[in-house]
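Encode chain A's predicted structure.
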Amino acid sequence: MGQSVLNPEELVAAPKEEAHDHESPKNTSKCLICNGSQITHFMTAPDRYHWRPEEYRLLRCSTCSHVWLANPPKPEEMGIHYSQEYHRAIMASGEESVEDRWGRQRDVVARLKKGGAILDIGCSSGAFLGMMKGGSWKLYGIDMEASTAAKAKAATGAEVFVGEALDAPFPAESFDVITGFDLLEHVYQPRPFLAKVLEWLKPGGIFYAGLPNIDSWEARALGTYWYGLELPRHISHFSPASLRHALNSLGFQEISLTTPYTTYIEDSVSYLCSRAIERIGIEPIPMSKRGPRSIPMRLVRKALQLSLAIPFTKIACAAGAGPSMEAVFRKNGSPRNKATGVLGGKA
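Encoded structure for chain A:
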């Protein structure tokens, strides 16, 4: 991950018009978060999930530490990178062991809000919204893929918008809680996107996000083999510092920013093994094409968990250097009393 300062003439000039969330960012001379111009080369890496040779270039802002993909594929070209295998894997990961996967997130929301309107952006098949079903919650979702959104609606009864988030027709101050898990890293223009989230929240409303940490010990140790890179589907790569900068600068108030226990070690080691196989002349099977793990691979997985993932990751997560972040931020202001129209009262 060596860095070298880039000269302005090496970079593409920034467009004058403001880009939307679904527009490919052409601006590599300015940071997408803070508009800083001190840009360094971060790394070059391929799409290891599909095991394709094309390499992608990541840049880093020296001011706020944000990392992003230079010249990402245009939105209309992204279909090949979001394959059906990818969508199936995402749905499976969300639906497997639902209580273990989403129980903590449900409890975090419950501690902060007792009910209201909740929007899950990138809701997939609705596993998280299903955890919030019932009680005093009105459920909403957004997902890009129509059949996946239909599954979420059928499973949860949520109102689900199909398409780009910034095209969703929600009025300002519509939601008490907005969530986005494994979402921000996919957004072409994170700052306008976060500004829209702020606009949609009611005063005192909560934004709760989960995403990879580009400054984690795993990312530093594994480099281009780190599973969390997910190029070119991950366009923005945040650290705790850059995420704080982005949200604070828009007017959000931090409640918490943690790196809870999780790990990408197993999949990252799988990439390393595929590279070793390739070097001896055998074409590896891309992760996107693999079926369920065999019994020997499950034993290897368990051994990795016990010997590497659990001890080191728990220490790293406790120190704020875990591979995944969870951020909870509040929109400033007091919620409006619907009966009187007066600002005030408890959130």
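The longest strand covers residues 201-212.
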